[in-house]
Amino acid sequence: MAPKQNPVAQYFANIYQAVATTLLGMKLTIGYFFRKPVTMLYPEMRPVVQPGARGLHEFDEAKCIACKMCMTACPVDCLVIEFEGRGKDAFITRYDIDYQKCLFCQLCCDACPTEGIRMTGKWDLASYDRAGCLVRFARPKSTEEIRKFREDFARAEAEKKRKAAEAKAKAAAEAKPAAAPEPEKKSEG
Amino acid sequence: MQEFVHFLQHDVLARISPPLGALPDQIVLLGAILVGAAPIVAFMAVIAMAWTYGERRIAGFIQARYGPNRVGPEGVLQPLADGIKLLAKEDIAPAGADRPLYELAPLLVFVGALLPFVALPFSEKWVISSMAAGVFYVLAFEAIEVIGIIMAGWAPNSKWSLYGGMRLAAQMVAYEIPMGLCLLTVVALAGTLNLGQICQMQGGAFGVGNWMVWPWVSPFATLAFFMFFVGGLAATKRAPFDLPEAESELVAGFHTEYSGIRFAFFFMAEYAAMYVVCAVATVCFLGGWHGPFREWLAPAAGAPTISDLLGKAVQVKTADGAWFVWANLWGALSVLGKWAFWKPMLYELLGAFYLIAKSFFLLFVMVWMRWTLPRIRIDQVIYMCLKVLLPFSLLCVLGAAAQTVFTDWNLLHWLLSAGK
User: Are the C-beta atoms of B267 and B274 separated by less than 8 Å?
Assistant: First the structure.
């Protein structure tokens, strides 16, 4: 409480204070009036993010070996991978990230053994519906292409199998003569 | 009224084309009313639109943001978009509303805001009616708004509206007193209630030196000006006196239950009332249409009037020597190329510019104060009116009366000798 005063003096002191504080406030606000607004005009101006920022993903299909490590590491299961084949030659048919679920923890990127997926500074994914939040990173493939890959892959697998069988047979053949070379020669002769 | 109609028939309509001068009185009067009302309503709408936009932009800048800047260049078409939105909205009345009152209230508020424009000068000659009791008339019709707002508070059967309406009744009726007394200060100094004459007295000294507000003209008017402005803030329910529509407590106060075009009426009335208060303050205290360089354009005594110029340009006389524009339209249009025609026009236009610019500055201060000060409590509002503004405005009236008497020797002599 303020010290007790003569009521008349208090009356005039109150008026003085009211006027003085009003003027002080108005001085402050007019200062802001002439200052440049701090608002960023969003679609035209975009903030520059720091280099380490965790934003939208960037996916390199050539590096991906379809090991599903990212999918396993994802704590919210926002990542879906589908592929044909395997290993370095894997044919990725689907690599979707649902940004409605994604929490930008970067665990997928840490898990990736080939650095095929990493995070960028891009951050705005405004869209008019939920479907816009589902980003398909893999190059879209036609059924024709997939069928062709399947056939090629099957052929390559068969070839590989055949070669493996041949190699096995060869190895077996090479191992046998050491054990019993005689009857072989005999049969030939 | 009869004289006015005859003036229109003989000196205006007959000057355009003789058959027009023969129109019946009733039609002439109706036309005059419409032609007189149209520019006021248009001006009022433009003021309201400009200041809804202006207020939001100024509020934006004060809060270090931009405000509306998307619709049109820098957002200037925003009020138009808002207007279309309000027109397209459904007109809802709450259940249990008193329908006739509910529908009458916005119109009454609108009319209350519209009528003061009749006596309000825009420039020296640009005034709808230069009435002898102009100050009194403006104050009286500002007060009509109170009735409309109490109706708007009562009719929708809503507690928020009723609180808002009652608060406004308390506040507005209370603040009418110091506002009236502050204007009385000027009236005492000027010796007339005519707004035009009050303004006329403040000319001279390069158009800026003789304004009522300057302390060397009258220190009492200086004080009265600031008190009138504070009273005007309260009477137009602007922050920090916006209790009737305190959005944090009463939703929107008396216009909570109104939507669409009815809400737009309240909104337009609020901004029009703000302009009226600022324009009255400008006319009575800030020299109205007086400003620098205007005196250079002043028409010399005996300069030809527009009527004279037209008569000379038309050069066609009927049998009784009268001229009319329709007889020689091209000749009449040649007046537009004459400096003698444009000089008085420019003189009035510059006056209107000064008056509106000063009023807009006061409006800017109103908006500036709104975004500076927090809302005060209803008891503080009434305390401020009755215990601070009222005694000081009484002091101003007495001071101005004393100044008038003691600086005018003839008046003093007349007063002293009146008893004998």
Answer: no
Is the CB of A45 inside 8 Å of chain B's CB atoms? no
CATH code at A57-141: 3.30.70.3270
CB distance A33–B369 less than 8 Å? no
Q: Are residues B236 and B253 in the same domain?
A: yes
pLDDT category at B363 given cuts 50, 70, 90 is: very high
What confidence tens digit (pLDDT) does each residue in B126-182 have? 777 778 888 888 888 887 888 888 888 888 888 888 888 888 888 888 888 899 899
Whether residue B76 is found in the same domain as residue B121? no
Q: How far is B72 from chain A (nearest CA, A)?
A: 15
pLDDT tens for B405-419 read: 888 777 777 777 776
For A40, which residue in chain B has the nearest alpha carbon? B65
B71 and B95 co-located in one domain: no
Task: Check residue B29 and give its pLDDT.
Answer: 80
Distances (CA, A) of B14 to A146, B10, B24, B309: 91, 5, 13, 16
**Min CA distance, A85 vs chain B (Å)?**
52
Distance from CA of B357 to the nearest CA of A (A): 19
As given in the structure block, the two tokens for residue B374 are: 């927090």
Pairwise CA distance, residues A171 & B261, whole Å:
95
Report yes or no on B321 lying in a domain. Answer: no
The Cα B80–Cα A107 span in angstroms is 51
- End-to-end, the C-alpha distance of chain A in Å comes to 125
Structural tokens at position A123: 């951050």
Mutate to test the interface with A, among B56, B62, B364 (most CBs of A within 10 A): B62
In a domain, B322, yes or no: no
Option in B64, B369, B373 nearest A32 (CB): B64
Q: Which domain holds residue B231?
A: 89-300+337-417
Quickly state the pLDDT bin for B316 (edges 50, 70, 90). low
CB contact under 8 A, B64 and A39: yes
Flag if A29 and B61 touch (Cβ within 8 Å). no
Instruction: State ipTM.
Output: 0.72
Choice among A95-104, B247-256, B315-324 with the minimum mean pLDDT: B315-324
Query: Residue B150 is encoded by which pair of tokens?
Result: 């109490």
Residues B45 and B7 in one domain: yes
Q: Could you tell me if A24 lies within 8 Å of chain B, comparing CB atoms?
A: no
Residues of B in contact with A15 (CB under 8 A): 388
